[in-house]
Amino acid sequence: MSAPPLSVVVPAFNEEGNVLALLDEIVAALRGVTPFEVIFVDDHSRDGTRAALQSALAQVPELRVLGHERQSGQSTAIRTGVKAARGEWIATLDGDGQNDPADLPKLLAARDAGAADVKLYAGWRVNRQDTGSKKWASRWANAIRSRLLHDATPDTGCGTKLFERAAFLDLPYFDHMHRYLPALMQRAGWKTVSVPVNHRPRGAGASKYTNLGRALVGIRDLMGVAWLIKRSRLTGVRELE
């Protein structure tokens, strides 16, 4: 079987009530648009997430399911999926169903119309369907991140993204790195583009993050990413003949 040009990677932790509906939506959005595979990475869920996904393997030929042997976090789950992916380009969606798979063709169209040095198309949630406190915390975090990293990205927390697999795997890996992909891609010498996308209320289950917990981790990560950017050195390379 030839490798598909697109791999959709979905990290999931305790999302039993969301994953099958999300899978159906991904398939509906992409069949007839481009060959693809869907890789769900179960981050050692304690509910029926893994069993639900396994039950769909026989019905959805594009589906692959990977399971972590211990809970390792969203960034690790994304990286697990990207490393296993066969596609040259990777699309990501959060496993809670708040990202709309119908936006994936829009990101693919933006890539097809974009420049060769754009390696990341990042979703921009223009109509957030979250609680007031979560939206306020996100605006605060985005403002601080933008001032410190100068990544010219209005929304780095959106799970809807499209990026080149090779460019992603060349980035430094650390926990929570998925929240800093625009800055990390730019640090590597690539360009990034933000694309307005839909955002939906969570269908089932509860959020795995709290505003305080995310803020405490975010401050430390911001300082680390700022240090990486400051210490970066880029140069062109020419082979002599």
TrEMBL record:
GO biological process, one term: lipopolysaccharide biosynthetic process
Limits of the Glycosyltransferase 2-like domain: 7-168
Record-linked InterPro entries: Glyco_trans_2-like (IPR001173), Glycosyltransferase_2 (IPR050256), Nucleotide-diphossugar_trans (IPR029044)
Key words, A-Z: Cell membrane, Glycosyltransferase, Lipopolysaccharide biosynthesis, Membrane, Transferase, Transmembrane, Transmembrane helix
CDD domains listed in its UniProt record: DPM_DPG-synthase_like (cd04179)
GO cellular-component term (any): plasma membrane
GO molecular function: undecaprenyl-phosphate 4-deoxy-4-formamido-L-arabinose transferase activity
PANTHER family the record matches: UNDECAPRENYL-PHOSPHATE 4-DEOXY-4-FORMAMIDO-L-ARABINOSE TRANSFERASE, UNDECAPRENYL-PHOSPHATE 4-DEOXY-4-FORMAMIDO-L-ARABINOSE TRANSFERASE-RELATED
Protein known as: Glycosyltransferase family 2 protein
